[in-house]
Amino acid sequence: MKGFYKILLIVAFSSVLGLLIWNVYLINQVDRLSKIEKDLNFKIQILEGDLDLISYDLVTSRDSVRILNKKIKEDCPQNEDN
Fold first, then answer.
1. Residue 74's pLDDT band (boundaries 50, 70, 90)?
2. Rg of the chain's alpha carbons, rounded to an integer?
3. H-helix or E-strand containing 52?
4. Distance (Å) of CA 30 to CA 1, 5, 18, 39, 43
Protein backbone atom coordinates (compact mmCIF):
# COMPACT_ATOMS: atom_id res chain seq x y z
CA MET A 1 0.00 0.00 0.00
CA LYS A 2 2.91 2.31 0.75
CA GLY A 3 4.31 1.79 -2.78
CA PHE A 4 0.95 2.73 -4.30
CA TYR A 5 0.94 6.13 -2.58
CA LYS A 6 4.53 6.71 -3.58
CA ILE A 7 3.69 6.01 -7.25
CA LEU A 8 0.56 8.17 -6.99
CA LEU A 9 2.63 11.02 -5.52
CA ILE A 10 5.21 10.74 -8.31
CA VAL A 11 2.48 10.76 -10.98
CA ALA A 12 0.77 13.75 -9.37
CA PHE A 13 4.05 15.65 -9.07
CA SER A 14 4.94 14.85 -12.69
CA SER A 15 1.51 16.00 -13.85
CA VAL A 16 1.78 19.30 -11.98
CA LEU A 17 5.31 19.87 -13.27
CA GLY A 18 4.21 19.04 -16.82
CA LEU A 19 1.25 21.42 -16.57
CA LEU A 20 3.51 24.21 -15.30
CA ILE A 21 5.94 23.70 -18.17
CA TRP A 22 3.02 23.58 -20.63
CA ASN A 23 1.64 26.82 -19.12
CA VAL A 24 4.98 28.62 -19.57
CA TYR A 25 5.12 27.39 -23.18
CA LEU A 26 1.59 28.64 -23.87
CA ILE A 27 2.33 32.03 -22.31
CA ASN A 28 5.37 32.38 -24.58
CA GLN A 29 3.28 31.40 -27.60
CA VAL A 30 0.62 33.99 -26.71
CA ASP A 31 3.30 36.69 -26.41
CA ARG A 32 4.85 35.69 -29.74
CA LEU A 33 1.47 35.59 -31.51
CA SER A 34 0.49 38.96 -30.02
CA LYS A 35 3.66 40.49 -31.44
CA ILE A 36 2.97 38.93 -34.84
CA GLU A 37 -0.61 40.25 -34.74
CA LYS A 38 0.60 43.78 -33.95
CA ASP A 39 3.11 43.63 -36.81
CA LEU A 40 0.46 42.39 -39.25
CA ASN A 41 -2.02 45.07 -38.14
CA PHE A 42 0.68 47.71 -38.68
CA LYS A 43 1.36 46.34 -42.17
CA ILE A 44 -2.39 46.34 -42.93
CA GLN A 45 -2.63 49.99 -41.89
CA ILE A 46 0.32 50.87 -44.13
CA LEU A 47 -1.22 49.03 -47.08
CA GLU A 48 -4.61 50.67 -46.50
CA GLY A 49 -2.89 54.07 -46.52
CA ASP A 50 -1.12 53.18 -49.76
CA LEU A 51 -4.44 52.06 -51.25
CA ASP A 52 -6.11 55.33 -50.26
CA LEU A 53 -3.26 57.29 -51.83
CA ILE A 54 -3.37 55.27 -55.05
CA SER A 55 -7.15 55.63 -55.22
CA TYR A 56 -6.83 59.40 -54.84
CA ASP A 57 -4.17 59.48 -57.56
CA LEU A 58 -6.39 57.41 -59.84
CA VAL A 59 -9.37 59.70 -59.36
CA THR A 60 -7.22 62.78 -59.89
CA SER A 61 -5.71 61.29 -63.05
CA ARG A 62 -9.13 60.37 -64.38
CA ASP A 63 -10.39 63.91 -63.81
CA SER A 64 -7.28 65.35 -65.47
CA VAL A 65 -7.80 63.15 -68.52
CA ARG A 66 -11.42 64.24 -68.77
CA ILE A 67 -10.40 67.91 -68.61
CA LEU A 68 -7.67 67.41 -71.22
CA ASN A 69 -10.02 65.53 -73.56
CA LYS A 70 -12.60 68.28 -73.23
CA LYS A 71 -9.96 70.94 -73.95
CA ILE A 72 -8.66 69.02 -76.99
CA LYS A 73 -12.19 68.70 -78.37
CA GLU A 74 -12.79 72.42 -77.87
CA ASP A 75 -9.48 73.47 -79.46
CA CYS A 76 -9.61 71.09 -82.43
CA PRO A 77 -13.18 70.65 -83.62
CA GLN A 78 -13.41 67.82 -86.14
CA ASN A 79 -16.58 68.95 -87.86
CA GLU A 80 -15.76 72.37 -89.21
CA ASP A 81 -18.12 73.89 -91.77
CA ASN A 82 -16.37 75.83 -94.60
1. confident
2. 35
3. helix 2-75
4. 43, 37, 18, 14, 20
Alpha-carbon distances, residue 70 vs 33, 46, 76 (angstroms): 55, 36, 10
User: How far from 5 is each of 2, 18, 19, 45, 59, CA to CA, in Å?
Assistant: 5, 19, 21, 59, 79
**Cα–Cα distance, 64 to 74 (Å, whole number):** 15
Element (H, E) at 78: none
19-47 per-position pLDDT tens digit: 999 999 999 999 999 999 999 999 999 99
Collapsed DSSP state (helix, strand, coil) of residue 46? helix
